[in-house]
Amino acid sequence: QKEVEQNSGPLSVPEGAIASLNCTYSDRGSQSFFWYRQYSGKSPELIMFIYSNGDKEDGRFTAQLNKASQYVSLLIRDSQPSDSATYLCAVSGGGNKLTFGTGTQLKVEL
Amino acid sequence: EPEVTQTPSHQVTQMGQEVILRCVPISNHLYFYWYRQILGQKVEFLVSFYNNEISEKSEIFDDQFSVERPDGSNFTLKIRSTKLEDSAMYFCASSRTQSQETQYFGPGTRLLVL
């Protein structure tokens, strides 16, 4: 059973702080890693993807991948109240399907 | 910006009835997917579809489920005889290619089986 694990939270950070979201996965053959944001009652919205070990930055977001440790993370700098949502880690083995974690609820407080 | 669309946004049905959920993927995308999310639970893969046939399906996707691309734009999910436990949000997604390619999700259909 291929698993993706996330801390369900809630993770509370003050406005302007850095939020750090973590994800581990069980399948060593996983090749593609995605972070989606999901507001309550809405569909997953892509934030970032990463395929190679290391860091990838896009605006306020940085994804980090460590395949040896089977670990992927998302950093959100200068967190805003509008960033309050559930962040879903999803993993693909190069085939079709995405395997999702349960998501981490982020709350950015004023 | 092109997006995946889904209809209806909400569907209420009686147990045992058939439902068809509809999706229009992004126009130049070749791979299509259905996922579901039971309230409070994780997003779960149901099925992927390419070149007019199923390329992968999960254990959830049993004989009660079927998918079809009836024309050049629509992609449908049919549940033949709905059960209470089919109540969930159903998301359609599409991607341009298969490998290392982002899947874009539609807004979802909320299905409630009574």
Key descriptive features of the protein:
heterodimer; A: 110 residues; 6-stranded mixed β-sheet; 11 strands; globular; B: 7-stranded mixed β-sheet; 4-stranded antiparallel β-sheet
Overview of the structural elements:
The complex is a heterodimer of chains A (110) and B (114). By secondary structure, chain A is mainly β. Chain A is 0% helix and 54% strand. Chain A has no helices and 11 strands. Chain A has strands at 4-5, 11-14, 19-25, 32-38, 45-50, 54-58, 61-66, 71-76, 85-92, 99-100, 104-109. In chain A, strands 2, 4, 5, 9, 10 and 11 form a 6-stranded mixed beta sheet that branches. In chain A, strands 1-3-8-7-6 form a 5-stranded antiparallel beta sheet, with no helix packed on it. In chain A, a hairpin with a 6-residue loop joins strand 9 (85-92) and strand 10. The termini of chain A are far apart. Chain B has 114 residues and is an all-beta fold. Helices cover 0% and strands 50% of the residues of chain B. Chain B is built from no helices and 11 strands. In chain B, the strands form 2 sheets. In chain B, strands 2, 4, 5, 6, 9, 10 and 11 form a 7-stranded mixed beta sheet that branches. Chain B is globular and about 35 Å long. The interface between A and B is medium-sized, with 24 and 26 residues.
